[in-house]
Each structure stands twice: as structure tokens, then as C-alpha cells.
Design brief:
eight-stranded mixed beta sheet, 24% strand, 473 residues, 20 strands, globular, alpha+beta, 2 domains, Lipocalin, Rossmann fold, 18 helices, seven-stranded antiparallel beta sheet
């Protein structure tokens, strides 16, 4: 995966300069071109027109110096350098404007046409307050790891059969969102297959809303899922022509769409399931430049609009299948957006277990924490609020998230699929890789990607059996 800008904490070296316009600890968020948001934190201290210091936590556990830090009246700018396994380091340049205790600006990377935005508020006049707080609160993975083994308090949750618990949630909620931290988790995929094949599923659910579905093709998708005469090659346009390259080579979606179509063959007209594509309606035949793609990059806005128009306004019941960041309450994800737009309390958000502290220093405590899950049925589902799981800092679940609120403020339920080191990787289907025309088209779309046009083929060659193998993501 490309380097992320989330959870960047700037802890500056000590100096005796007087307080400048930007000196202090700041917290805020970065908004990606897709519309997703990431938490961000700064600890700034300036001297004259110079901003100096270090960056901590990008990625978690790393430290690097600020480069070219500058202050010009109420304008600030600096760069960070993020190493990559292959090729030169990626450089991200921050440029912001300060107004009192508020700051906003933009972040540009290698592609000057592709910008992030950020906002932040000053939380302390002391630039070192952020670094001190990081040692004992819900902070970065490296800080939590250095503080020693966790001793979470709270009740021991009682696990329920996951399928039964999800179906029961529809008695209270209009929407259940199933979220995963990263795609291609075969155990997560298998749970969804088993869920939709449950004989009780069609009586509880009207719609399945998915991340890998281009809204441009919704009429085509409706005909295909309803059982009309639609060729498989034509139907594949729905998930192969999204803004996300991984969708087109996903073995999960290659099977999910035909599975729902076949289930509908057994159902009466009033109970047939509908599938909805949440991805923006991009027409790739008309996209040749990054500028032409930009109107379709706000994915969370598109997802929220589909949910409001097709599900919530019609009081239908829907299962959402997305990356968990799209589903979390609060922030800038799709669920948070439609909740703020007038639909609060309608959605039960579930996050799948991925091991504790995966891809971070906190993984050293995974076995101890997973020992508390020993004996849980696989798969099983538990509520988070008030449990010892809810007492764990955020980085145990998502290493680059830095939030003061407990996990239960954003996620309602926890889906246990077995120990993290035994989760299986979903391989890329041969059908996609052997489709030379589609591979050529995918390379064209990926020309501007930081990982290059051979990303998909590299993933096919290097991915292993297990989902959490080192270096997989």
C-alpha cells in the first residue's frame, strides 16, 4: 500500500525561542482525495521564519526530521520524507495558514495535481505537551508499545454466533456495516458468503451495498442481479471499472455477484435481493488524465449519497460491505456523513478482527491479548462498549489512527474470525490476470499510481498464503 499520512505527530527539539504564531500542540485531520479522513497531530515551535523538529509516527514507530520548515507571517510550510520498500522516498509538502488557534491547508505529494487538505486546532501552547501525552493515552502504536503490556479493564464479552447476531441486529437497525481493515481477507469473505446463503437472510435484508461496484452501471447491475439475460462479461464491468484497482482483481467480488444472482433465482419477486454499487460513477472510456478522474475521487460522498437515496430514504434494510474506515461513526467516512445529514442511529458498525497491533510494534502483545479470546467460536460477534476490548487504545485495532475517544464511539461490534496469524489471504483469480485486454486497461489506469502500472501483477507474484504475512500490504 502507498504511504499514508494518518497519525503523524511532530515532536520538536527543545529550543529557547519565544512563542511564535504556530508554536504549540495541534490536533486535526487530513482529508484524502477520496473523501476519507485520517487523524493528524502536530507539535510546532518556530524561531523567526524557521520551523524545525522531527516527525514521529509516519508510518507508526518511525522518526524523521522536518525538512525545509518555513514561517511567513500566518503561512507555514514544511516537508516530510517517507521511505518506501522500492524506489526513492516519497516527499509530502504541507502548506497551511494559521488564524488564532485554527490552521488549515493542503498536502501535496509526487503528483502535484493530487492534493490532500488538512485542518487542525491548537490544543496546548506547549509544543512538548503532545509528546508527553503520547506515553499514556490513546496515542500512537510506538508510544503504547513502549509503555509496556496492556492491562485493559472492562467486562469479558459473551460471544454470539456471528451470522445470528448480524441478522438479529436488523431488528433494531436499518443498516449493518461489515468492515475490514484491508481487502483480500479470505476468512472475512467466507463469512459473508455464508451469511448471504443463510435461509433467513432474504427475510431480513433488502439490499447489499458494496465498495466494489460502479454506480454508473446500476441499471445493468439491477438487471443482472434480478436474473435477466446479461452476459457475465458485461456484468463484470460493474466491479472491474471502479476507481479502485483491487476491485477488478478481487476473487471475492468475482463470486459474490453471481452468488446473489443465483440466490435470487429461488426467491419470489417481493423478496429478491438488490445489490448497490457505492463507488462513484466513473466512465473510464472518457478518463485520460488525472484531472478528468478528480471529480470521481470523493468515494465517501458517493457512498453516502447512494445510501441516502436508495436505502435510508426508502426505509429499506441494507448490509454494507466496505473497508472499516468508510463505516466508522464520526470523522469523514460515508456512514458518518449520512448520519450528520439526518440519519443518526440507523447503522450498526462491525469491525473484523485482524490481530492486535498488526503491522506495528504493538503486535508483540498480540498473543497475550488473543489469549483472552481462547475458546470463542469462529466466527463470533461481540459488542464493544464497556468491554476490555473497548479499553484498548486505537492502535491495537488500526495502527495509524490516533483518537482520544474509545473504539466504541466509532465501532459497535467486533467480528472474531480466528487468530490473526491464521487468517488466509484471498488470491487473485486467474480469470482476471489472464484477461490480457483488461490487464492492459488496468495498466493504463495505473500509470499515475505511486506503485506503478505493474502493481496487480506484483501482488499476484508476491502475495502469500496468509493474510497477515509481513510485507503483504
Amino acid at each position: 500500500m502507498k504511504p499514508r499520512l494518518a497519525a503523524i505527530a511532530v515532536a520538536l527539539c527543545a529550543c529557547s525561542a519565544p512563542r511564535s504564531l504556530v508554536t504549540g500542540a495541534w490536533k486535526g485531520e487530513v482529508t484524502m482525495p477520496s473523501g476519507e479522513t485520517e487523524d493528524i497531530a502536530f507539535a510546532f515551535e518556530g524561531r523567526g521564519d524557521t520551523l524545525t523538529g522531527t516527525i514521529v509516527g509516519a508510518p507508526p514507530g518511525t522518526t524523521r526530521p522536518i525538512e525545509n520548515g518555513r514561517i511567513a507571517q500566518d503561512d507555514v510550510s514544511f516537508a516530510i520524507r517517507v521511505e518506501r520498500p522500492e524506489g526513492p522516498a516519497a516527499v509530502f509538502t504541507f502548506a497551511g495558514k494559521v488564524a488564532g488557534d485554527r490552521m488549515q491547508g493542503s498536502v501535496s505529494g509526487e503528483d502535484a495535481a493530487r492534493r490532500f487538505t488538512f485542518t487542525a486546532s491548537r490544543t496546548s501552547a506547549d509544543p512538548h505537551a503532545l509528546a508527553r501525552a503520547a506515553g499514556g493515552g490513546r496515542r500512537t502504536a510506538h508510544a503504547a508499545a513502549d509503555s509496556g503490556p496492556p492491562k485493559p479493564q472492562g467486562t469479558q464479552p459473551t460471544p454470539r454466533d456471528a451470522s445470528q447476531a448480524v441478522l438479529a441486529a436488523f431488528d433494531t437497525y436499518e443498516v449493518v456495516g461489515l468492515g475490514i481493515l484491508s481487502y483480500a481477507n479470505q476468512d472475512f469473505d467466507q463469512f459473508i458468503f455464508d451469511l448471504v446463503r443463510n435461509p433467513n437472510f432474504p427475510s431480513r435484508v433488502n439490499d447489499i451495498v458494496v465498495e466494489c461496484g460502479n454506480a454508473l452501471y446500476q441499471p445493468l447491475l439491477d438487471r443482472y442481479i434480478a436474473g435477466d439475460s446479461v452476459a457475465a462479461a458485461e456484468a463484470r464491468r460493474v466491479w472491474r471499472n471502479t476507481t479502485q484497482p483491487f476491485c477488478g482483481v478481487s476473487g471475492f467480488y468475482e463470486q459474490l455477484y453471481p452468488l446473489v444472482r443465483r440466490i435470487n433465482e429461488t426467491l419470489p419477486a417481493g423478496r429478491k435481493l438488490r445489490m448497490l454499487g457505492g463507488d462513484p460513477p466513473v466512465d473510464w472510456s472518457a478518463v485520460r488524465t488525472q484531472a478528468e478522474l478528480r471529480p470521481f475521487e470523493n468515494r465517501d460522498s458517493s457512498i453516502a449519497a447512494v445510501m441516502e437515496r436508495e436505502v435510508l430514504a426508502k426505509h429499506r434494510k441494507a448490509l454494507m460491505i466496505f473497508g472499516v474506515r468508510h463505516l466508522m461513526h464520526g470523522g469523514g467516512g460515508a456512514v458518518a456523513r449520512y448520519e450528520r445529514a439526518g440519519y443518526p442511529g440507523r447503522t450498526f458498525v462491525v469491525m473484523a478482527h485482524n490481530g492486535f497491533g498488526a503491522d506495528s510494534p504493538l503486535s508483540r502483545y498480540n498473543d497475550t491479548l488473543e489469549g483472552r479470546l481462547a475458546g470463542w467460536p469462529v466466527p463470533s460477534l461481540v459488542p464493544l462498549r464497556g468491554t476490555w476490548l473497548d479499553d484498548l487504545p486505537w492502535p491495537y485495532f488500526i495502527p495509524d489512527v490516533d483518537r482520544e475517544t474509545p473504539v466504541s464511539a466509532s465501532v459497535d461490534g467486533y467480528l472474531y474470525l480466528g487468530p490473526g496469524n491464521l487468517l488466509l489471504n484471498q488470491p487473485i483469480p486467474a480469470r482476471a490476470v489472464l484477461d490480457t485486454a483488461y490487464m492492459a486497461e488496468l495498466r493504463r489506469r495505473l500509470q499515475r499510481s505511486p506503485r506503478g502500472p505493474d502493481m496487480v501483477m506484483d501482488e499476484a507474484r508476491t502475495s502469500g498464503v496468509f493474510f497477515n504475512e509481513a510485507g503483504r500490504r
